[in-house]
Amino acid sequence: MNTLHNPDRFMADLRQILSQGRKRIGILIGAGGPLSLKVDSTGKLDPNGQALIPGVDALTTQVLAKLTGTEAAAAAAIRASLPSGGNIESILSKVRLLQTALGDTMMYGLDGVGYAALGRTICEGIGSVVGARLPIERTPYHELVSWVSGAQRAHPVEIFTTNYDLLIETAFERAKAPYFDGFAGGHAPFFDPVTVAGNDLPARWSRIWKLHGSLGWKSECGVVVRCGGHEHAELVYPDHLKYDLTQKQPYAALFERLKRFLLTPDTVLLATGFSFRDAHVSAVLGEALAMNANAAVIAFQFQSLAGEEPARKLAFEHPNFSLYASDAAVIGGISGQWRPGDLPKNWSEIRASFWGPRGGANAFLLGDFASFCRFCALSYSSDLARSADAPAQAQDADSAQATA
Predict the structure, then answer these.
(1) Are residues 278 and 309 located together in one domain of the fold?
(2) What is the value of pTM for the model shown?
């Protein structure tokens, strides 16, 4: 007998969790977040425009296209040597390894100094793409912050993201909502692992943890500092940390924070726009869920269940990992198609916030980052009505390319 999952049941439970402010809640945001925002050539919201920040595949293509001469040839050779052609993160990690290991030895036309220069060029290219500003108009990021700051909370909301952009920070600052990102100080804020590991700050201070680094980070006198702004693009990546002690501490502390969050009793992590192809993050999630049966991860995925293999694998291995795809779900380790039940009283507008037409058929909508943020923001409303200005942003086929 085929198993069926009723989305009304699970979304009613989720609305209660989101609106109460008592549970420990974390949000994991991947590349599908900025990918869901469509803008025109001037940076204003436009449902028919281009993604504010492209997915990692398009980002890799754009950055490598900026290279010329020997640098372009070296990057092409490195990419060809990586499994499935790699992506911009794995390419840059390899560049930095060669920078450290080669010295005067030549490889693909560059020596250690040449690879140091190539790394800087790649970072500048990444920064120019992911440094896009958050539009002034109300966006899904604004709505997510509205939900975060809309209730008195017993525990802070913790936002984990693999993105390098400053979109979520901008949304918090425009809303005058306080947050802590691991850095302390004014002139050149330094990374403070002691405060990251603790819970000394008030619950009204949200936490933002940039697992893969961020624009505005740099190494200064052996310490990682936040210089602010979008201009500095000295990005660092987890693969490289094994070979560079200077960069190890920020990432070690941030990944430990993710693990510690999931090891805390009665926590739920909501993943949005995240592909689960990042081995570092998936390993931490799997280990923590195996150790703590009282923690839960709910992954909201844009594609059909068949197209979400990395998340599906985690869902089958860990019954406290739930996967909500567009056509089906894996809940408690059981796969089943979505099938809404009879419409409860006063539920039609609420159902429309998570279930509706897409691609010619009805589908579960919260795999789209914009729909997820709207659902969170409206979780406080008992008389839900879809406003005329609801964001029409919808991820297109490019969302399939979004990776952590």
Answers:
(1) yes
(2) 0.86
